[in-house]
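Lecture notes, part 5. Sequence design as translation. It can be helpful to think of inverse folding as translation between two languages: the language of shapes and the language of residues. The source text, in structure tokens, appears below.
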């Protein structure tokens, strides 16, 4: 069998920046072949080439793009998929447009499941029992909700539900791993600002105007001071591939563990008070 034919490959979505890009190096570093995908293939040009790398364009909201990527992997022993692509649509729910919510779900939820379904037959064909992996990158905001992050948080709650359901349905055959990161310093916050669109204008003169400004300022400075690196996140996610019995959940960063714990133990009024206070809503 050729090198390409025998090597185990993992396909990763959203490799143009951040966690996805870091995952490419991390997976190759432990001997996996990687199908690195991005919406614009030019974003992958700086990846060092090799027999263990295939670069493909893949937009998770396009059925044609997904089908083309599946065809382009037919000759590989693809046994794993990391659904990493995603972005954050923020904004007070009262001012959210239906098309913004739809777009958020199209990428983070519908696209993730469409990619999973498209690659599952290939993974089934290639992987011995228990060898395959489906990894969904959700967020700590998939277990709790904060003000102004409703659309993103709702989409990540949906990702948690999809992962838990898929695990019940196929987990004995193909382990399904849920990744829940806290703050990671990537392009996420820049993209988030683009996804605001004209929202700052829309909330002008409302109670949300100062909250939004504070939110953006706090997120930028928080990212600089406290966020983990994409490489750190990638090293944690690697456990999903390298462990014979991978964990069901991989929580990344102390705040992801702490916030989940606080929500579970605090009485609801106290938890809500804390969040309202942190966001200036009291
Ligand atoms: N950074 C954090 O603090 C954090 C925390 C928790 C969870 N996460 C999750 O971690 C994952 C990776 O995010 P990141 O932090 O690495 O942010 P990032 O640097 O912004 O990377 C996001 C990636 O998703 C891609 N993407 C967006 N829409 C896509 C589409 N329709 N089709 C294909 N790719 C698409 C982006 O591609 P383009 O360059 O083409 O836009 C980019 O490659 C996301 O699911 C995010 O929700 C991040």
């Amino acid at each position: 069998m050729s090198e390409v034919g025998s090597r185990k490959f993992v396909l990763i979505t959203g490799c143009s920046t951040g966690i996805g890009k870091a995952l490419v190096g991390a997976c190759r570093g432990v001997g996996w072949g990687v199908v690195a995908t991005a919406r614009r293939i030019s974003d992958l040009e700086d990846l060092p080439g090799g027999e263990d790398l295939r670069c493909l364009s893949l937009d998770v909201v396009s059925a044609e793009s997904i089908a083309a990527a599946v065809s382009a992997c037919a000759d590989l022993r693809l046994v794993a998929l990391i659904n990493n692509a995603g972005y954050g649509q923020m904004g007070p729910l009262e001012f959210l447009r239906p098309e913004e919510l739809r777009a958020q779900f199209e990428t983070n939820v519908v696209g993730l499941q469409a990619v999973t379904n498209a690659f599952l037959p290939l993974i089934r064909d290639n992987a011995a029992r228990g060898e395959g992996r489906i990894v969904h990158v959700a967020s700590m905001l998939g277990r709790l909700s904060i003000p102004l992050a409703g659309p993103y948080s709702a989409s990540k709650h949906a990702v948690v539900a999809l992962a838990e359901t898929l695990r019940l349905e196929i987990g004995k055959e193909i382990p399904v791993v849920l990744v829940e990161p806290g703050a990671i310093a990537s392009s996420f916050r820049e993209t988030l600002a683009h996804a605001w669109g004209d929202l700052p204008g829309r909330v002008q003169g409302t109670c949300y105007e100062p909250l939004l400004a504070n939110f953006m300022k706090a997120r930028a400075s928080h990212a600089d001071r406290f966020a983990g690196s994409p490489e750190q996140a990638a090293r944690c996610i690697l456990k999903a591939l390298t462990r014979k019995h991978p964990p069901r959940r991989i929580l990344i960063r102390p705040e992801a563990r702490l916030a989940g714990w606080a929500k579970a133990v605090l009485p609801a009024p106290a938890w809500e008070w804390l969040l309202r206070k942190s966001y200036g809503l009291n």
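The translated text above is only one of many valid answers, since several sequences can fold into similar shapes. The domain at 3-278 is CATH 3.40.50.720 (Rossmann fold).
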